[in-house]
Amino acid sequence: MFHATHVVSHKYEEALDDTGIVLFDTQGNLWGFLAENNAAADVYLQFFDSNSGPSGSPVFTIRIPASSAVGKDIEDKAAYHFANGCSVRAVDARAGSSLSVAEPTLQFWYAKH
Fold first, then answer.
1. pTM of the entire structure?
2. Which pairs count as long-range contacts for 71-78, CB under 8 Å and 24+ apart, including other chains?
3. pLDDT in tens, 59-80
4. Of the candidates 27, 33, 30, 10, the residue with the CA atom closest to the CA atom of residue 90
5. N or C terminus: which one in the chain shows less Cβ crowding within 10 Å?
6. Which domains are present in the chain?
7. Is 111:28 a contact under the CB 8 Å cutoff?
8. Is the pLDDT of residue 24 over 70?
9. How far apart are CA 49 and CA 90, in angstroms?
10. CA-to-CA distance for 16 and 36, rounded, in angstroms?
């Protein structure tokens, strides 16, 4: 359950690429996201337990089908917890490291501890 002292923040990313972003740089929970993929090919979002950008193996990867949007509200069950921070990037393949199609648009909701 969400703890009342944790403030949920929102971040909009107009074009997420394979360089990625640091969503939050301290311990926290990812509460939800909305991803829009306007490319003619699938895009994969890789989430990392990292406060310095995507590195190492992703904690989890989510496929965003071509020309579609995917949302995930995880507030109604256990949130994804990141011990060190959360970094995310968009790539062409589940185990990939590059993106050659149009960059997806994303919104994230998270709480830092």
1. 0.90
2. 71/32, 71/33, 71/34, 71/35, 72/32, 72/33, 72/34, 73/31, 73/32, 74/30, 74/31, 74/32, 75/2, 75/31, 75/32, 75/109
3. 999 999 999 999 887 655 557 8
4. 33
5. N
6. 8-112 (2.60.120)
7. yes
8. yes
9. 15
10. 10
